[in-house]
Amino acid sequence: MDFKEFFSYVPQNIEPFRLFGWHHILQLLSLVFFITFFTVLARKKKSFRKFYKRFVLIAIVAQEIVYRLWDAVIFEFKPDILFTLHLCSFCIILIVIIMIKYNQTIFELLYFWGLGAATQAILTPDLGVYGFPHFRFFQIFFSHGLIVASVFYFLFVEGKRLRIGSLKRGIIYTNIYAGIVLVVNQVAGTNYMFINRTPDTPSIIDALGPWPFYLIWLELILIAVFSLIYLPVFLRHKKELKLAVQEGE
Fold first, then answer.
1. Cα dist from 20 to 2, 40, 124, 244, whole Å
2. CA distance 182 to 194
3. How many degrees, rounded to 5, is the angle at CA 114 between CA 109 and CA 117?
């Protein structure tokens, strides 16, 4: 395959992406292996930790720039191509901030948004004609894998923890952010987070009813996913509280 085909908008010699096909499965296994391996290595070796943190920061910025330029060349540098307010894209901004200077609230948002949205994007990527080995195939797994890797870094390498009440705050902040995005969509004519209308291409949202009724289902799904992600934190807090009570007796 030549260089032009690798970056082409409509590839001619690449098979379309197949959900849970063997290329997809191998990519998922690769992400699990590399994220686990580098997280464990950074946890055990302090000399590697600083390098790994810098690598994640530089890599996630670099891949985003390359992807935006590729997208912009195809769509003639439209503003909504160069900048996006989808959750995963905004997670990249949060990662840049928190890698430079740690902030607990940002970490908690990154925990819910990163694990919730990025994991879903890895499991069910919207790739269409961009199967293996197209640039977009590698980019979408690499970018979302770095988001998950960032969350794991702060959890297991730096030992950061979520505060009690972070689930409630995560849901509230997400709805506030969604409200801001709704206004931006109205003004700019965009459809970030698919709040203002269903996606242009067929998706699971189509099965949730017409606008605005499908937003109710999306809210319920949001609460369910965030609650599931928060469950290990809840169990940990419950265990720590139980131990504190036993020590106080």
1. 26, 27, 8, 45
2. 9
3. 115
Cα 3 to Cα 225: distance, rounded to the nearest angstrom: 40
CB 225 within 8 A of CB 117: no
Give the end-to-end CA distance of the chain in Å, rounded to a whole number. Answer: 70
Please identify which residue in the block is written with the tokens 């979520």: 162
Q: Residue with structure tokens 């720039």?
A: 65
Length of the chain: 249
pLDDT tens per residue across span 192-240: 988 998 876 666 787 888 888 899 999 999 999 999 999 998 888 777 7
Give buried/exposed letters for 161-185 (b at 16+ CB in 10 A, else e): bbeeebbeebbebbeebbeebeebb
pLDDT in tens, 7-34: 888 888 899 999 899 999 999 999 999 9
Structure tokens at 9: 């908008």
Q: Are 52 and 164 in contact (CB under 8 A)?
A: no
What is the spatial distance between Cα 107 and Cα 110, in angstroms, rounded to a whole number? 5
